[in-house]
Write a structure and sequence with these properties.
The protein has about 200 residues and is α+β, with helices and mostly antiparallel strands. It contains eight helices and five strands; from the N terminus they run ααββαααβαββαα.
Length: about 200
């Protein structure tokens, strides 16, 4: 037996008798990417919601975005107050009177700035309440849904208030809106009709 074979035998033999550690459980790719979206959300500058979005295509992150004011402008944290709160605007309404660009929109915009195609990509959206840190149902608003459809994305994976994830196929949104109207959408941003209860 030559020296190389003996060394190989010694190395293999040294594993005998040792107990093997169980392999740690691997999280799914969807949870992995949603976890990255969670880190992105920590850059948010909104008093109402911390939301981060990433876009993945061919198993690569191609764009990220979080809730924040347009580049080179003052965000709500710098102003020290939420404009929509000060104007008593309920959740889900009058987004034109918000300093921020939504995370989903920023992810799409950032891809455009880099000249990257989003076709058949997946978007991952994580949201939480900045006051409590609790996860929320981070469904895109109607404006973001329309942009996601037109960007040609395939799936949207969102965090849920229970700490799980919800997966939506963009083609299902298109089919639903072909049969019914946009207002009939069952997964609206925030709690369904929460503003009606807020006004009481």
């Amino acid at each position: 037996m030559n020296k190389k074979s003996q060394n190989q035998k010694e190395k293999t033999g040294s594993l005998k008798g040792k107990s093997r550690q169980p392999a740690p459980a691997r999280i799914s790719k969807d949870k992995y990417y949603l976890g990255i979206a969670r880190e992105v959300s920590r850059r948010s500058t909104c008093f109402r919601r911390s939301i981060g979005a990433i876009i993945v295509r061919d198993d690569q992150i191609i764009s990220t975005g979080y809730v924040g004011a347009p580049r080179k402008t003052k965000d709500s944290l710098e102003h020290g107050f939420c404009l929509r709160d000060r104007l008593h605007i309920p959740h889900g309404q009058r987004y034109e009177l918000c300093r921020s660009v939504h995370a989903e929109q920023n992810a799409i915009i950032n891809a455009a700035r880099a000249g990257v195609s989003l076709l058949n990509g997946d978007m991952f959206i994580y949201g939480s309440d900045p006051k409590t840190g609790q996860p929320i149902e981070a469904f895109p608003c109607f404006i973001c849904k329309k942009m996601i459809i037109n960007a040609g994305l395939r799936r949207v994976v969102c965090s849920s208030s229970e700490g799980n994830l919800e997966i939506f196929m963009v083609d299902d949104w298109i089919r639903d809106w072909q049969k019914t109207d946009i207002i009939d959408d069952t997964h609206q941003y925030g709690k369904p009709y929460e503003n009606k209860t807020e006004k009481k």
